[in-house]
Design brief:
The chain is mostly helical. Helix content is 58%, strand content 0%.
């Protein structure tokens, strides 16, 4: 057996390029196979980004960085960012789907609206997403199904039942969007103290002009105070449902 050349390693036939791996190839564990993150992990990472920084902070590159993987590993699941947002919304809307809805239609719609409001407050970017693209996921459809089920016994035509669902959802998401903690990714200056002081001074000048007597009666500070809290939500929801009940009674023979 020929002696080993200084530029060769035992068991090789070419020149050496750095130290040889220890042990025989049969005794070395194979390199770990690169696995793409699961779709669930991607959606969770994207949701965390949106919860912390707003919807506009979500990008394939940033989500990949959060998962310590390559952007191309994510594009195996999504053709575009909109599809990722669809999955994010549908995942959080699952929290608005009730295990069982009350039999009374007002109680049912109220419970559904409260559950949806809780989701919107926990994930303020969801309302932003709903304003940008149609929401069609399975959990979204379960939410819609429950809303339609709530009005099934009212004897209304399908178009009116759809209108009730849209009215309750629109009110709920709109109220949540105006509540403190909403998505600020659009560059809102609502919480800027300087702008608020300037707005109060402007409104007070209008009130003092005598041209806005109702404004003067309320006061500038009252108009600017953000009272989109649970009490105002319940009050407005009650007004909305009372209006639906009144129209139903008027339509009854």
């Amino acid at each position: 057996m020929a002696p080993t050349s200084p530029d060769r390693h035992p068991g090789t036939s070419g020149p050496a390029h750095g130290p040889a791996p220890a042990g025989l190839i049969w005794t070395r564990p194979p390199k770990e196979k690169r696995e793409r993150p699961t779709r669930e992990a991607i959606v969770a990472a994207a949701t965390d980004l949106a919860d912390t920084h707003g919807l506009d902070a979500v990008s394939i590159r940033r989500v990949a960085a959060a998962l310590q993987t390559r952007p191309m590993d994510l594009y195996g699941y999504f053709a575009r960012k909109d599809e990722l947002i669809d999955l994010m919304v549908d995942e959080v809307v699952a929290g608005a789907v009730l295990e069982e809805i009350p039999r009374d239609w007002r109680g049912a719609l109220s419970a559904i609206a409260r559950a949806l409001r809780a989701v919107c407050l926990a994930h303020p970017w969801m309302v932003t997403a709903a304003g940008r693209q149609a929401l069609l996921g399975p959990n979204v459809m379960r939410h819609v199904e429950q809303s339609l089920q709530a009005t099934a016994a009212l004897g209304l035509d399908p178009a009116k039942r759809l209108a009730i669902w849209r009215a309750v959802d629109s009110y709920t998401m709109g109220h949540a969007h105006l509540s403190p903690g909403r998505d600020q990714s659009d560059g809102s200056t609502e919480n800027d103290p300087g702008r608020r002081a300037a707005a109060e001074a402007y409104l007070q000048d209008l009130a003092d002009s005598g041209n806005f007597p109702n404004l003067a009666g309320i006061g500038a500070a009252g108009l600017l105070h953000n009272e989109y809290d649970e009490l105002t939500f319940e009050t407005g929801l009650n007004w909305l449902l009372t209006g639906i009940a009144a129209e139903r009674q008027e339509a009854s023979p």
